[in-house]
Amino acid sequence: MPPLNAVRAFEVAARHVSFTKAAAELNVTHGAVSRQVALLEDWLGVALFHRTPSQLSLTEEGREYLNEVSTALDRLVNASMHVMQRAAPVVLRVNAPPTFTMRWLIARMSVFQRKRPDVEIRLTTSVAPPNFQENTYDIALRGQQGPLNNCRSIPFMTEIIIPICHVDLQETLRLAHPRDLAAHTLISYATEPYAWSEWLTAAGVPDLKPANILSFEQMYFALQAASEGLGLAMVPLFLAIDDIIAGRLCVPFGPLGAKRRTYYVNSIAISKAQTLNVDFCEWLQQEGRDTEQSITAWAASQGWTL
């Protein structure tokens, strides 16, 4: 094998027909390039350049060698890039609301990772409308009233929003009718998709005034406050269903006044990771169906139809 550093120095110098320009490209000195070319010429036993005080030019052997060396180096670069790309992780950037991510998505991610162990999921959170031009994510999960414009929007789960509370609150202070909320604390949060005023109107008590109102910035804090028995919170049923089935939370008024909304997986219409996006969407749809079936089975055990 010829000395490869010398071959590289020759290829750059021959391409520019200049040791000075080669030195700038390789970030070395003019003398270093000259020494490497001389080393290669000594190894080959032929002159590759005609050198005069005012001009540098390739010999016939130099021109022939340049053609072969350039092709070989190009193949080496392409082979290296191919291996590097195959070795690099496949990344899927997913953005979703914070509470949804903590209470539902993360708990189910292991199923997708077993299905696609080659994929690295990078999760970020937001409740803002998806904007694929200004944000660096491939997929955005949101509760929506319908598909988004200029987006590939696929529904994967129905969101049913109703009041929930700690079981102790229901057992010690019976909540038989919505008007009983006049003696209780209602928990609200800034990002709520269904306000208490809307639910009270749907429940037939639009003028009811609760004993107290406890306000938070995020749904997660409202759900945690309800879990601690501080009052009643209006949250999507699928976020609380595990605690409800376990007997920690309850739905005091059943499906009364429930609001429905759909969760969508949104992505740009044309994606470089189209196959990966399809796999992720199919997995989400299956998880959504499983969650809905759990909720339907639980509701049936209560004698409710959701």
TrEMBL record:
Keywords: DNA-binding, Transcription, Transcription regulation. Residues 2-59 form the HTH lysR-type domain. GO terms for biological process: DNA-templated transcription. The keyword Transcription regulation applies. Gene3D superfamilies: Periplasmic binding protein-like II, Winged helix-like DNA-binding domain superfamily/Winged helix DNA-binding domain. InterPro entries: LysR-type_TF_proteobact-type, LysR_HTH_N, LysR_subst-bd, WH-like_DNA-bd_sf, WH_DNA-bd_sf. Signal peptide: none annotated. The keyword Secreted does not apply. CDD domains: PBP2_GcdR_TrpI_HvrB_AmpR_like (cd08432). GO terms for molecular function: DNA-binding transcription factor activity; sequence-specific DNA binding. Belongs to the LysR transcriptional regulatory family. This is LysR family transcriptional regulator.
